[in-house]
Amino acid sequence: MLSSVLPFTPEMAAKVTEYCTSHSNDVSNNMKEVWDWTCDQFEDADKMSSPLQGATMKFLAEHHQAKRVLEIGCYTGYSALAWYEATEATKAEIITLELDPKMITASRRTFDKYKLNDRVKLIEGPAQVSIEKLTGEFDIIFVDANKEGYEGYVKQILDKKLLAPKGFIMCDNVFARGMTISTDANPELPANVRPYWTECGKALRRFNTFCRSDPRIDSVMLPVYDGVTLIKWKPFSRFPKLGN
């Protein structure tokens, strides 16, 4: 049987990405501008979602007709812009959490330049503290922050029932550049970032185990981008039938 992941060389993987991007809905000019600006200004711009992933996020949000979106980790505001554009019809409220002062400044630049402040709210500070203060339900929750925090953030979200009954959580980078699978999985990973992603891989292995074992949720890990996990409530797990 064909494997879920084709054995591409790095060169072929780049061609496949280009092919998929050119045969998918394009992102907006504004998103392209933010992408180019981020790549020009930040050495770690590879942490930003790719254009194809941005298109995927827009597709999912528009199809889901989301009315509230929460993202944990804002970076330069690229993903928040994607959520904003995708929810024009529903006028969704978008709450994004960020701790790093440099990224807060970059995000506010994006929100101001592209006039997103009418529906995007940036909350500064540690995500754990910010999540604890949130109320209501979110249709989409995007987790893309410090990897050692993933398990705690998702537990908080579930415990506080911040995820809507038919909502989903999307967790990015669960492969940690391959280090989650094996420290030998990515020989192309530069030596200067290998220790960082190796530690991320350790944390994400624990997180992936949590997703598979928590009785409240269903999850599926997709071998796309840098690994994406989708999480939803199990049927009846959020509001069990009386007497069960």
Number of helix segments?
8
Which outline best applies?
globular
Task: Tell me about the largest β-sheet.
Answer: 7 strands, mixed
Strands of the biggest beta sheet: in what spatial order?
Answer: 3-2-1-4-5-7-6
Distance between the termini: 41 Å
Q: Regions with pLDDT < 50 over 5+ consecutive residues? A: none
In percent terms, what proportion of residues is strand? 15-25%
Instruction: Return the average pLDDT rounded to an integer.
Output: 94
SS class: alpha/beta
CA radius of gyration is: 18 Å
Helical content band: 40-55%
What is the tally of beta strands?
Answer: 7
What's the helix-strand series? HHHEHEHEHEHEHEE
Describe the structure in your own words:
This protein has helices spanning about 10-20, 30-40, 50-65, 80-85, 100-115, 125-135, 150-160, 195-215; strands spanning about 70, 95-100, 120-125, 140-145, 165-170, 215-220, 230-235. The mean pLDDT is about 95. With about 240 residues, it is α/β, with parallel strands linked by helices. The chain has 8 helices and 7 strands; from the N terminus they run H-H-H-E-H-E-H-E-H-E-H-E-H-E-E. Strand 4, helix 7 (about 150-160) and strand 5 (about 165-170) form a beta-alpha-beta unit. About 40% of the residues lie in helices and about 20% in strands. It has a 7-stranded mixed sheet, sandwiched between helices.
